[in-house]
Amino acid sequence: MLKKIFKSNTGSTLVLVLFFLSILSMLGITILSVSTVNLKMKVVDKNAKNSLYLAESGLQEAYAEIGKVIEKGIDVGNEKVDEKLNEFIEEEKKKEEESREKAALDPENKIEIYESPYLTDEGFIDQERLEKDKKNTMINWFREGYTTSVNEKLEGTILNGKNYNIVDKDIDSSNAQVSIIEPISLYQIINQESEDSEKEPDAEESKDKIENEIVDEKIKEYRNYQITLLSEFTHKEIEKDVRATFILKVPDYRAAYFSDYTVVQLDENILWKKSLTTEKNIFVEDDNVTIKGDIYAYGTAENGSTKGGIIVGNEGKGVNLSVYNGQVATNEYLLTNDSNSSITLNNGDLYCKILEIPEKTKNCAVTIDKGTVNTLDDIELNGENAKIVINGSYFGFTEGSNSSHHEESSSIVINSPDLGSGTSLKITGEEIPGYDTETSQLVGNDYYSEKYNDKNNKIFGYGIIIGGTGYISELKDELDQKYDYQTGESVCIKGNYVAYTQYLKDLTRKGKFHPDNIIINYFPPLFLANKYFLSGGTEELYTVVDKSEYFQHYKNDYYGLNLNLGSENGLQLENVRHSTGVYISKNNIFSSKYNNDIASIFTEKNEDYQYYVNKMSDPQVVTLSNEGRVFNGLGTRTMITDQFAFTNNIIINEANELIRINNSPDISITINEDIKKGIIITKGDVYIKGKVNFRGTIVAEGNIYFQDKGAKKITHDENYLRQTISKNETLRDQFKNNGKTQSFVTDSKLGVDETGSYLKFSKLIDIAWKR
Q1: What residues form the membrane-spanning segments (predicted)?
Q2: Where are the domains of the chain?
Q3: Model confidence, pTM
């Protein structure tokens, strides 16, 4: 029928149009539906991608936060190194300080003062040594600070939603939700228990480590920090999540460090280079007194006494003075003033007019260990059960062959009644190993090392030199005037004057020693050989050398009758290099001994004496040249006022410290147990009373007294003195006629240069993405 219709011409065109319109309509509807679906799919896909992008952005922001935590951890690690380094340096300073304090408390001077290998004498830090010895330790300090910071801060930083920003407001105004989905693996040391630590340490090895105290740590290795994060985001109802594991390594310690110093300059002055300085006397009147450093007491006889200087002993109380690592100088006596007193000098020289244990004392002793005794006059040993021991050299450098005064002739005088049976004297005359080096470090010995290093001057350094002879005092001459008879003995023992009271016997001797030629004169109350007849009948005085021979002849002629030779152990003199007269040692008499260099020795020793006594051992008066040393103005005495102006009085008394400058001779200053350190410079007297442990210096124009029960210790602490003087302008400016300028550190610390710690975080963080 349809065929008929198509063949029919009636309405066929209309039907055909409607047919095609139907087909087109159906096709359009289909295309429209497909396009709509496609558009919807594209929108959903875009939203899904946006959601994934926004979820990933959460992890990107977490990565940035991790970077910030790492950066902060590096800063903390560097600060840890900074802190620990400064603690270490402060501990080294403390160890030095405590070592000095312990040494000051050690009466036997057996404690060695600790000197840090990381600090120079001027107070600078030895960075090269520090980096060498403590490199691993600094790495561990950094790692400890860094890992602790990251372990403590990272989790909270990640979980803090405030750390995450809106990525794109045009897309979505929400934040990604970041969470931790697996247990965190923190930084943790993985080699804490090493095989070495599990082993029992070798005792000898442990001892060496303790003694050396330079043991670097083993570098501590850490397990990586691991954290797994989930970032979720819902956009247009499409939820997406992204997971990743962040693995954080421990950064290398790359920070450079620097030293920060406060450096000041201070001119040296001889007043603050000593423990004790006085223009008068030092009286040690009670208990034990220990001095570390130099002592200077010019000495003046006063209060009716004929003796000044350094006087030890009072009313038989058993007073002891010990001096360590310092020179002792006085123009008067070093004297044990009463029974049961003792003096010990260790590692330092003595310059004095007379070293004496006086008569009417018992149980006194003087010991000089590792040092040289230099006397302008005599060594006098007069007490009972008295002992003098010099483990070192002795120089009695005044030659008195042409003098009529015993003060101008150095000798050893012994009037003890029990020599050899209680009283003894021993001088080794030894060259002390390392002595040159040690003395060159002492104040006033700036020129010593050069002098003693000259092999031609070896004689100057050690041995026994006795420049003069003894005298018989309190005699009268033919005019009934006071007269001192010079003997021929450089070592004079009580009673041995008998040798000059007798005519010699040997008739075979010719000349001045023939019995018929000897003239014995009367010097009330004694008759003494004094002159001899020449061949023509002319009278000639015996010289010192003549009298020394006379003494020897007497011993031979009378077989030593009535001579006291001191016994084998009572009198021991070794390494005698020069003796103007005869000397006695180990129960034997030895003839005069002459040294070809003696004139030079006397000259040098006299210069030394004036240098220490007249000039307070001020290095400024010494000039060294190829021709030798030149002294300036040795004959002029240096006074305290030449070195200090006394323009401003100062009283600072706080925190166990006393800084006291006093320009009045009528004001006395007392130091007691409460005062631990200080600087005392006064025109008056100073009293150190009771138990005292004082560090610093004491300078007085008046006397210095040690009184009352309690051990007393004075320690010269140059580091404290430099620091204190440099910081107090009023005090510093009163010193004058200063010496060379010293540069030293008043404050030192170490810091970390942050610019040296830059690292790329991509090298520290590995990311493992997960689905």
Answers
A1: 12-34
A2: 46-191+219-254+764-770, 471-563
A3: 0.72
